[in-house]
Amino acid sequence: MLAEPDVLQTAGARIFFSYWDSLPKKDFVPDRSDFSPGRIAALMPAVTILEVVSEDLILQRLTGTAICRALGFDPTGGNALEMMQPSVRPDYLNLIRKQISTPCGRWNLIRSRRDNLIDRVEVLTLPMRHAPTGHWMILSYFGTIESISYDPGPYEILAYENTSWVDIGAGVPR
Hints:
Elements lengths: L10 H12 L24 E6 L5 E6 L1 H7 L17 H13 L2 E11 L2 E14 L4 E16 L5 E12 L7
Antiparallel strand pairs: 1-2, 1-5, 3-4, 3-6, 4-5
């Protein structure tokens, strides 16, 4: 069992990490077949699973209901890259590359707009493998920390305020 990362701010993120850490692992990472959504049912509305197929295709395999509500639609089955501005994609792909080249967790503190509110949200992303395809998967939990202000408009990630790598035993990217 790994020590809980110091950066986690919400109870949901701590429970999410603890569940992921309890899964059997090969080379520091669990397989998708060992992940059981029912074991963290209360958190699932704020969970996503992405499958990294290629540099151009990151499939949205699962999108929790709270995330769908914030987005205003269900992106499940689509390419996650199409939901972000083209200017953001290279930085996002770089984070994904780093996370799977040195299997590790990633914690972000973001500012986003949802339901006409600006929120500060922690996002904990942890790697999984998908044995049938050989692809990496990214399991994420989104935990709202606080609402900051009112700002009419659709869901949008406005800023990454902080990023930290979480060592799961293989080290962290440089």
